[in-house]
Specification:
This is Ig-like domain-containing protein. InterPro entries: Ig-like_dom, Ig-like_dom_sf, Ig-like_fold, Ig_I-set, Ig_sub, Striated_Muscle_Regulatory. Keywords: Repeat. It comes from Oryzias latipes (Japanese rice fish). The protein is mostly beta strands. Among the domains are: 73 residues, Immunoglobulins (Immunoglobulin-like); 91 residues, Immunoglobulin-like. The protein is 9% helix and 38% strand. The protein is elongated. It starts with 6 loop residues before the first strand and ends in a 36-residue tail after the last helix.
Length: 274
Amino acid sequence: MKRFGPAHFECRLTPIGDPTMVVEWLHDSKPLAAANRLRMVNEFGYCSLDYEVAYARDSGVITCRASNKFGVDQTSATLIVKDEKGLVEETQLPEGRKGAYRVDEIERMVHEGGPAGVSADEESEKTKPEIVLLPEPARVLEGDIARFRCRVTGYPAPKVNWYLNGQLIRKSKRYRLNYDGIYYLEIVDTKSYDSGEVRVVADNPLGTSEHTVKLEIQQREDFRSVLRRAPEQRAAEVQQESGKIGFDVVKADRPGEVPQDREIVKLHVDKNLF
């Protein structure tokens, strides 16, 4: 959403009317500070949070947590407030000169430290990186997707890298890296050798912050192991003498009275056997 716009969150809670239930709203796992622009409602199992005006600093994970004497439960959503562009990108230069103008402006910002008309005192206070939303450990079945996310603050904007077992992760078909105010890592088609540690590192000129979590890959059950555990037929049911075929002899009371599931076989007696 755009800066200065309203934002609304809501959820339903049960049991209704529980006097021991406590409801709280969190921003990046920290209690949401009270402010005149925030309005919270908790009535008859309906909970809501409204931002009358939202700023870029409000971006993060918003969580509603409910607890009573039996336990705790929560639900979360991501709020992303985009800052309006502070640099005028349009120019009265001819079409062919716009690219050169943009390059000149970027180079000037690099050397002077900020957009035109902004003094050093007006810039954001420089701070070292801080991971305010920590990634969580993951346990997935082999072949599934392992997902991690984090939110980082700091100025100048920190550079964020992910590592798997000490190796830098680069964007590819198997490793998806995305950012929308929150940094995301997805490991697609996980393998057993992916088990280990996932580390996120954020750094800028003022310092570094990092956090490590465990990734556990559970192997899927091999169908061959299921077959090995299948009950074996009793030997008595299948044991037969080599070269002989077993059959039943049924005597019909009348000629032609043979059960439908039986086959008539004429036997010839060889007298030489006796």
